[in-house]
Amino acid sequence: MSNIGGVIKSIRDIFRKDPGLSGDAQRIEQLGWMIFLKLFDDKDKEKEILDSKYKSPIPTEFQWRNWAENDEGITGDELIQFINNKLFPQLKDLAVTADNRLGVIIRNIFDGTNNYMKSGTTFRQAINKLNEIDFNSSKEHHVFNAIYEDILQGLATKKDTGEFYTPRAVTQFIIDMVNPKLGEKITDPACGTAGFLVCAIEHLHKQVKNIDDRKTLQETITGTELKPLPFMLSVVNLITHDIEVPQIINTDALSREYTSIKQADRVDIIVANPPFGGVVGDGMETNFPLNYRTKESADLFLILFIQLLKDGGRAGIVLPDGSLTGEGVKQRVRQKLLEDCNVHTIVRLPQSVFAPYATVNTNLIFFEKGKQTKEIWYYEHTLPEGAKSYSKTKPIRIEEFDSIKKWWNKREESEVSWKVSIDTIIERNYDLDIKNPNKVVEEVVYDRNAIIKKIEINQSKIAIILEELKALA
Questions:
Q1: Which of 3, 21, 303, 394 is the 20 to 30 A CA-CA neighbour of 115?
Q2: Mean pLDDT confidence for 218-230
Q3: Looking at the structure, do residues 128 and 177 belong to the same domain, yes or no?
Q4: Is 383 exposed, middle or buried (0-12, 13-18, 19+ CB in 10 A)?
């Protein structure tokens, strides 16, 4: 069995030879749906062994084993025609009943995905390479997860797809602090490629003791993602983490009527990095009460989160500085947050955490619904000793959060932490962009005599230049 990282790299090299593929986003989309079909078929084989009545939602002709698995199988123009004229049209229009969630997922994936490859021979080479991976081997599965995360990170450094990837250390820290328990309903309404959900699954795996627990875990993780590429990648990501039927809905979470969210829809935990700086889709804001209508996506998502949480529900989310301040709707959104929820902690992150594809200052906001905010603790996360900024090659690391974790349960004011009462916040018109008052600023000690000496030298130089200029006049 070959090294998975090597296999993926070889496939990407093969892709570079195909005239139809241009740019990383297309290569990843292509690799994504190929991996999806291979992974799905590997899982189908496993299910068929365990349950003789199991029938795959993918029609027999389009199962990976029947057109791709044989290295000597169809190739050239025949392969391209099969993909473009049969496989894609059929899977896009897959006949499914509403309760066949896997069928719906397959249809959504192929509806939003393309085959870019034009050469059937390079395509066959890529397929044969992918056949070297067995997704049912647990050893391979862990290696693949690491490679997969690497692929996502590579995609995230592209300017136009920056929202796909939250640094692993940030998702890990948020999950550690929110600390989900098995049986709690967890959702990410803007789940991207499912980084937060995967982190939550890994956290909950440690609590799984038997088959019932495993079933509970499967049923309590949900997400929503609008864009086709991250939606497909999130499904692959969850399947590789043993979620048999990923409960990811391919839609805009903001498209739901605010008032239609009832008690039965509410969740225990929200972990998310909602898109910010973006403008919401046409008319989406009309789903929200008049008081909170805005085109700024992060603010609408915040209102949605408050509505989605049960009383006692917990959230850990990423928000830009722009959501902590501002008048009008922005102020009303923050007021609602502080009145409906206890915002107990705001961790202020350095500017470069999301470098190189986003340079806005961000914050991690932790709150619990059902109690009013009385005071907020702030913690300023500082760059490691000697570092000027984070970068693609030197991202933020989970170990850097150790000091915050120590402080979390025994809070005291320090050079990096401070407490602000709700009265102060109300006086500030609910502005939460509160700078660190305890920051030690190094004093510059002036040497008076040295300054006088410098001025004298400069003055004599000026006098000489003036004399020279007069002489020329």
A1: 3
A2: 92
A3: no
A4: middle
Instruction: Determine the pLDDT at residue 357.
Output: 62
Q: 323 is written with which tokens? A: 């959501």
- 306 and 173 in one domain? yes
Rounded to an integer, what distance in angstroms lies between the CA atom of residue 329 and that of residue 45?
A: 53
Measured torsion, CA atoms of residues 28, 232, 176, 304, in degrees rounded to the nearest 10: 130
Q: What burial class does residue 458 get, using C-beta atoms within 10 Å of its C-beta: 0-12 exposed, 13-18 middle, 19+ buried?
A: exposed
Q: Are residues 361 and 217 in the same domain?
A: yes
How many domains does the structure of the chain reveal? 2
C-alpha angle 444-445-448 in degrees, rounded to nearest 5: 130
Q: Are residues 391 and 358 in contact, defined by beta-carbon separation less than 8 angstroms?
A: no
Dihedral, CA atoms, 396, 411, 340, 204, nearest 10 degrees? 50
255 and 110 share a domain? no
283 forms beta bridges with: none
Closest CA to 266 of 277, 258, 274, 276: 258
Task: For residue range 421-438, list pLDDT tens digits in order.
Answer: 999 999 999 999 999 999
Q: 292 near 323, Cβ under 8 Å?
A: no
Contact predicate 180/201, CB 8 Å:
no
pLDDT of amino acid 149 = 67
Asked if 227 and 374 sit in the same domain, the reply is yes
Amino acid (one-letter) located at 385: E
473 occurs within a structural domain: no
Q: Give the domain extent around 321.
A: 147-427
Residues 316 and 406 occupy one common structural domain: yes
Q: 């969630």: which residue's tokens? A: 101
The model's pTM is 0.86
Q: Is the pLDDT of residue 162 over 50?
A: no
Give the residue from 91, 114, 135 where a domain finishes.
135
Q: Are 154 and 24 in contact (CB under 8 A)?
A: yes
In this structure, the dihedral spanned by the alpha carbons of residues 438, 442, 443 and 447, taken in order and rounded to 10 degrees, is 180
Tokens representing 39? Answer: 């992974």
Encode pLDDT of 29-49 as tens digits. 899 899 999 999 999 999 999
